[in-house]
Each structure stands twice: as C-alpha cells, then as structure tokens.
Design goal:
single chain; 343 residues; alpha/beta; Rossmann fold; four-stranded parallel sheet; 16 helices; 44% helix; disordered N terminus; binds 1,3-dihydroxyacetonephosphate; binds iron/sulfur cluster
C-alpha cells in the first residue's frame, strides 16, 4: 500500500480541492471574508501550497481571487486594481507584491511565515560573493528577502529560471540561494548550454526531505510517473528519473505535465497541499506523496486571513502590513522588473 494512503483518502472525495461539506461548515467565515473584501476593495492572492480552503476561488464558493505559483502571484499582485492585497503565502512573496506595487497596501496574515531559503542568505552575503567572483551576474531565486534581492542582477522563479539564466551571455552565473535547485539546473545546462553555476549553500527544508521516501514509492508503484520540484535534491532526481518517466521542474511545469500525461498515477515530490490542488484539478488521477508540509505556508489560515481583513482601518492593521525601506525597495525592484521583462 502506498505510504500516503491517509493523504489520498483525505482528498479523494474532494472536487476543486475541498468538499461541499467543508465549504458549508466554513460558510460564516467565508461570508465575512467576502463582505470585508468588498468593503475594503481587497483581493486575496493565494499560493498553491495553502490549505485547500484558501485555494478555492470565488467562483467555487471560496475566497481566493487568484491561486497560483510565485510568478503568477507576482504578476497578479502587480496587475490588480484593488487597494488591498491580502497575501496568503510566505513573507518573501508578500514582499515581492509590495515591491512591485508600493501604492497598494499588502497585508500578510502572519509575519512569521518565513522560508528556509530566504533566511539562508543576506544582502551582505551577496556582496561578498560578488567580490569573490567579480563581473559574474547574480541570479536571485524569488525565495529571498528584499535586502538580498537588492544586491542581485536579476530574479527568477521556479517557472522561468532556465529562461532567465539562458538570457545572460556570461558563461558563469551565480545562482542563489538553493544549492539543490542550482544543481538540478546545472545538470540540465550540461546538455543544453556551456553555462556553469556558482552556488550558495541554501536549501528548502521541505523539498530537501524528498530522498529515500521518493525512491521507495517509485519502486512500490511501477506505473506511477514522477513529479519533482526543482528544489528536490539532485541525487534523488538523478536516481529516480534515470529509470522512470516524469519531470523535474517548477510547480507550473508539474501541473502542465499531469495535464498532458496519459498516466493515471503520479508520485509527487513537492509540498503536500500541491497534491490537493492536483487532485482537485485532475480528480480521476491518483497522487502519491510522503505528504511533507511547509510549516511556514501553513501559518496562514482562513481565521488569520479574516483577522487581517478585520484589522483594516484599525490600529491592528500595522501588525499585518508589509513595508520595506524605500531605498531597498527601489533596489530590489530592478531585478524583479528585469525578470518580468525577460519572462
Ligand atoms: P513556485 O515558484 O513553484 O511557486 O515555488 C515556490 C516555493 O516556495 C517552492 O517551494
Ligand atoms: Fe520556502 Fe520550502 Fe516553504 Fe517553499 S516550501 S516557502 S522554499 S521553506
């Protein structure tokens, strides 16, 4: 039996990632959130790693105005005409929304929602790297804080990393901060370009856990295809994709892969609630995963999303407000803008 049978059971009865019964139980909360959004001209942007109730969009009885990956959320935040963005994701994502739209108010329901990658590197670290490798362009994964981005040449997300790296003429590139994603990218570049990457020693505390668990699930499920995020250790990617069909890529690559694949069973090497998203989108397919959750993402709940909305116009609003020193914001804007132009 697959190790994650609990996970499969939990979501197998769902359509659109959440059951009718749950929607009905949560109705008072959902209704108040919808009313407050209207009252304050606010939108809710929600990452694919949120719990299912935060991923259901307004069309399906939920509260999210947009559900997407980190690139999609950046663009949605920039394009919305709303006065308030309630960001259901982690801090570096909410910061990116603010950097792109300082005229809007960005509220993050829990400022403790961090990221092991973003916390692994500072702006000073980047300055030291540049001194060690003069003239080598620095690509910052979007999973970094504003003061780190401020020292970099360009940003990328998991979706556009390959394209961004290839857009630079330089043979050598510094890629920060995820060493596993960097190794996976370098392995792809080996066959496609002459580029080499200088890496930082950061890792995602969720994706770095996909190792023997994925290998044993691959052995136990001979028909299943593999869905591995760029942040999964290169050793796991190499050992499993050597013998099994599948993909290493971004969240959106994973969604596209499932859409075009004829397989009915998949092993997911990414955050557990992406499994719920997939199950909601492809209810006839089966997703097997060790179900590892990002504890930072899970800090955001329907309740603290409502609390953030309730705080608007009160002294409590300050505790949710995302703000960045204007000099740093302007410096961090340049690499994000370049990323969006190159995407
Ligand atoms: P995406 O860019 O695929 O949304 O991933 C963000 C992330 O934090 C992955 O762990
Ligand atoms: Fe950061 Fe990993 Fe959580 Fe993504 S899953 S937010 S990379 S800790």
């Amino acid at each position: 039996m697959p190790l994650n049978s609990l996970f499969i059971e939990k979501y197998s009865a769902m359509t659109g990632g959440i059951s009718e019964a749950t929607i009905s139980r949560l109705k008072p909360l959902l209704e108040e959130i919808r009313e407050l959004k209207k009252k304050h001209h606010a939108v809710i942007l929600s990452h694919y790693y949120m719990t299912p109730e935060l991923q259901v969009d307004t069309k399906n009885g939920g509260v999210a105005d947009f559900v997407g990956d980190s690139l999609g959320l950046s663009v949605a935040g920039k394009d919305t005409k709303a006065d308030y963005i309630i960001f259901c994701g982690v801090k570096f994502m909410a910061e990116t929304a603010f950097i792109l739209s300082p005229e809007k108010k960005v509220l993050l329901p829990d400022h403790q929602a961090g990221c092991s990658l973003a916390e692994s590197i500072t702006g000073k670290d980047v300055i030291a790297l540049k001194e060690k490798h003069p003239g080598v362009p620095v690509i910052a994964y979007i999973n970094t804080y504003a003061e780190t981005k401020a020292e970099c040449d360009v940003c990328c997300t998991s979706r556009n990393a390959v394209k961004i790296a290839k857009s630079f003429e330089s043979k050598e590139l510094i890629f920060i901060p995820d060493k596993f994603m960097g190794q996976n990218l370098a392995s792809k570049f080996k066959t496609e370009t002459d580029k080499t990457l200088i890496l930082w020693n950061g890792s995602c505390e969720v994706h770095e856990q996909f190792r023997e668990n994925i290998e044993s699930m691959t052995m136990a499920n001979p028909e299943a295809e593999l869905l591995l995020h760029w942040e999964v250790p290169q050793e796991t990617v190499a050992s499993t994709l050597k013998t099994r069909k599948g993909i290493v890529g971004s969240t959106s690559d994973i969604l596209s892969y499932v859409e075009q694949s004829k397989a009915s069973q998949f092993i997911l090497g990414s955050e557990c609630d992406l499994g719920a998203t997939l199950k909601g989108m492809f209810p006839t397919k089966q997703f097997i995963t060790p179900c590892i959750m990002c504890q930072h993402m899970k800090r955001i709940t329907l309740q603290n999303t409502l609390d953030a909305l309730r705080s608007i116009g009160t002294p409590n609003e300050a505790q949710y407000n995302v703000s960045i020193d204007e000099t740093i914001r302007k410096k961090a804007y340049a690499p994000i803008k370049l990323m969006l132009d190159l995407s």
